[in-house]
């Protein structure tokens, strides 16, 4: 189930307005085409917080995210139905922030929100030659967190972004 979740922060220079979570369930038999699907028995909820002055401040409150602060996101996945293989939750990396890659070491990242890779690449031209190089982390726009095959029950997935 793909459902937009809004988180509001009135701040300068960074404004976090909408963060969309997507659940991707890819199923299929080897040799067949895998297609994303949705299920009513799967839920994904997002929560987030900032540590400020030694205290955890929820993003549910009206806060001002300051440059250099780290926003901790938690995606709580629950599956009350049959076990799922190839389950992944996709969280957006809001404009004005940059992912903290170490916060999600097994994640895949995307530059366009559609294609994911552990290290997305871009094409550059050097000395007249086109070559692919690792994209700068600042250009990542989404993060995909994979859950082990046979996912059933509940699982917390997390990642962090830093305000530019």
What features would you describe in this structure?
The protein is mostly beta strands and 164 residues long. The chain has one domain: Sandwich (Immunoglobulin-like), CATH 2.60.40. 0% of the residues lie in helices and 55% in strands. The protein is built from no helices and 13 strands. The strands form three sheets. Strands 1, 2, 3, 7, 9 and 12 form a six-stranded antiparallel sheet that branches. It starts with a strand and ends with a strand.
Distance between the termini: 31 Å
The proportion of strand residues reads: over 45%
Question: Tally the helices: what do you get?
Answer: 0
Low-confidence stretches: 1-36
Secondary-structure arrangement, i.e. CATH architecture: Sandwich
Total number of domains: 1
Total beta strands: 13
SSE arrangement, N to C: EEEEEEEEEEEEE
Q: What is the C-level CATH assignment?
A: Mainly Beta
- Overall geometric form: flat
* Class based on secondary structure composition and strand pairing: mainly beta
Q: The biggest beta sheet, please?
A: 6 strands, antiparallel
- Chain-averaged pLDDT: 79
CATH topology: Immunoglobulin-like
> Over all CA atoms, what is the radius of gyration?
17 Å
- Fraction in helix: under 10%
């Amino acid at each position: 189930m793909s459902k937009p979740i809004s988180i509001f922060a009135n701040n300068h220079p960074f404004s976090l307005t909408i963060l969309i979570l997507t659940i991707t369930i890819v199923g299929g038999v080897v040799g067949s085409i895998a297609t994303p699907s949705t299920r009513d028995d799967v839920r994904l909820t997002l929560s987030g917080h900032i540590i400020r002055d030694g205290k955890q401040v929820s993003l549910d409150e009206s806060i001002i995210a300051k440059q250099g602060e780290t926003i901790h996101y938690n995606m709580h996945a629950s599956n009350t139905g049959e076990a799922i293989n190839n389950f992944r939750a996709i969280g957006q990396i809001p404009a004005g922030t940059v992912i903290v890659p170490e916060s999600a070491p097994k994640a895949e990242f995307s530059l366009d929100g559609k294609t994911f890779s552990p290290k997305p690449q871009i094409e550059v031209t050097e000395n007249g030659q086109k070559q692919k190089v690792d994209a700068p982390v600042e250009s990542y726009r989404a993060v995909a967190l994979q859950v082990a095959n046979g996912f059933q029950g509940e699982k917390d997935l997390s990642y962090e972004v830093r305000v530019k």
